[in-house]
From TrEMBL:
The lineage of its organism: Bacteria, Bacillati, Actinomycetota, Actinomycetes, Micrococcales. It comes from the Bacteria. Residues 5-77, 90-169 form the ACT domain. InterPro entries: ACT-like_dom_sf, ACT_dom, GcvR, UPF0237/GcvR_regulator. This is ACT domain-containing protein.
Amino acid sequence: MTTLVLTIVGDDRAGLVSAVADIVDTHGGNWENSELAELAGAFAGIVEVSVSADRADALRAALEGLSGTLTVTVHAGGAAVTASEARTVTFDVVGNDRAGIVRELSSALSAHGASIERMSTQTTDAAMAGGRLFEASLTATLAADVAVDDLVAQLERLATEIQVDVTLAGDA
């Protein structure tokens, strides 16, 4: 089996996921993992699909047929890091919204060789104080030789600098 990663983007409307799922199914593919969302009237997602190697090119070609409705880019799936080689750290961030929070967090993770596995962010109205709150939930994969304590210390220093709360949800 071949793993393909699809990135999909288009104007939000009913039936977009169904259109992609139908093509994947028609070509013998298996929809394995996905993250899909509507943001500001646009639909975007990333989908992991497995398909037999001899049907991968036909699946790619069929997905190109969605052009005009969705922009679908097909990427070859990469080798995943095995559990024995990596650990996972998950944390939440909450604070007053301001430009640069994601840049600061991602730079700190990158400096420690951490790879963001999942990240979800949102801004909401701050009920009592007015203004906007920034909230994020991140899961990062760390190589076995990265000291989790060093990363946590860096995130705590960063939280003080950019005035957000960073809460470690768990690590392995």
